[in-house]
Amino acid sequence: MHPLLRDYFRKRTDADEHVLEKISPYFEERSFKRNEYVLREGEVCKHNYFIISGCMRLFTINKEGVENTRYFAFEGKFATCFTSLISGLPAFENIQSLEKTTVLRIHRDDFYYLVETEAAVNKVYRNIMESAYITTQRRIYDFQGADSLERVQWLLKHQPTILNRLSNKVVASYLGITPYTLSRLKAKL
Amino acid sequence: MHPLLRDYFRKRTDADEHVLEKISPYFEERSFKRNEYVLREGEVCKHNYFIISGCMRLFTINKEGVENTRYFAFEGKFATCFTSLISGLPAFENIQSLEKTTVLRIHRDDFYYLVETEAAVNKVYRNIMESAYITTQRRIYDFQGADSLERVQWLLKHQPTILNRLSNKVVASYLGITPYTLSRLKAKL
DNA sequence: TAAAAGCATTGCCCTATGGCAATGTTTTAA
DNA sequence: TTAAAACATTGCCATAGGGCAATGCTTTTA
Q: Domain locations in chain B?
């Protein structure tokens, strides 16, 4: 099992080496180029992706062509469109690599099989859901009613990596402001 | 077991009557007056609440005194501050009944004990998390970049009950707009 | 059942931010 | 290595929606 993934399980479960080796073969390594689409809106999401290196984002594009990003995943994190993975219905969002990215991916059928049969995976899944839930709630609270400057400051405080590592364009689409406004605000900090 | 709660488990698990009767005693009935605080920011959330009748909301109040509502729970739904329930840390949000409300509440220790030991409760918990996750993602996508009118129309389409049953004040705090703007928009529909 | 408190509505003004356009900079790809 | 494409910056203007205040309505409670 890849050391990053091993760490992930070790931190969240008490799974021993035997269990980890049982889980390991369900994951397969894949690579994506910079800006490659991993999933497009309308497709059914078939995999859960564990990021070894690089970065991905989940986002939508509305009818006016405006992008709206809701999640960035860096090394050592899972990324997938859970809405589609859970329901088996077509995704309404896209997944895209933002850098050259290597992942370990697991097929949804295998993943949910392990959730049902391996306590460690059940626990990890619960943990992913709980974290995602908490993060998202926090974002709703912190962003709603906050003006542009407060949002940028929030990002600086909570996820500075995003601000340093990614383009203004995608950061702005995460903050719900225009790249123009973001550029103006950065000049003021 | 209360019929509403029984239905809840029946819809989401294959738990038989025996299991339900085992779970049932962990829940106790409570009542709240209209506008009563069930949990205040800073307190640790000790219970998960299943609503039999009435309605509750989860919300924060910022330093300027502006309220920000993120969730309304009506009959047949669970409501709790999961962030605090999961972590055991003080809640940063409030829970308040908006009508005379009757609930079945379960203590967090009992709840997580059952999550670990009763497959039906594990499944229900997973389901709650998954649903909450999906709902929240959807809200982020649908609200971010949407103007006031679009938000009201969204509510009319997805959760009309909220618009009919609750005051403009709390609805506005859910939509992230002022009661003034909501009033003006309603006049135009 | 009357007084008070709390909400809803609407007019007026003001500000933050969006949108466009012009210019400069960085990245990509041949 | 260079041309093209994509992105960033900044000035200018337009506008959605916030905030306040005045008025009227509804709900609470004593």
A: 3-119
- By C-alpha distance, the chain B residue nearest A145 is B176
Give the separation between CA A97 and CA A74, rounded to whole angstroms: 10
CA A181 to chain B, closest CA, distance in angstroms equals 14
* A35-57 residue pLDDT tens: 999 999 999 999 999 999 999 99
Kindly state the greatest CA–CA separation across chain B: 54
Inter-residue contact A58 to A70 (CB < 8 Å)? yes
- Asked if the Cβ of residue B187 lies within 7 A of any atom of strand C, the reply is yes
User: Which residues of chain A make contact with B86, given a CB cutoff of 8 A?
Assistant: 130, 134
Say if pTM beats, i.e. exceeds, 0.90: yes
The residue with tokens 């920011």 is B41
Q: What is the pLDDT of residues B77-119, one digit of tens each?
A: 999 999 999 999 999 999 999 999 999 999 999 999 999 999 9
What number of C-beta contacts closer than 8 Å exist between A and B? 75
User: For B3-119, which CATH superfamily applies?
Assistant: Jelly Rolls (2.60.120.10)
Cα distances from B29 to residues B26, B53, B82, B84, B124, in angstroms, run 10, 11, 20, 22, 20
Give CATH superfamily name and number for A3-144: Jelly Rolls (2.60.120.10)
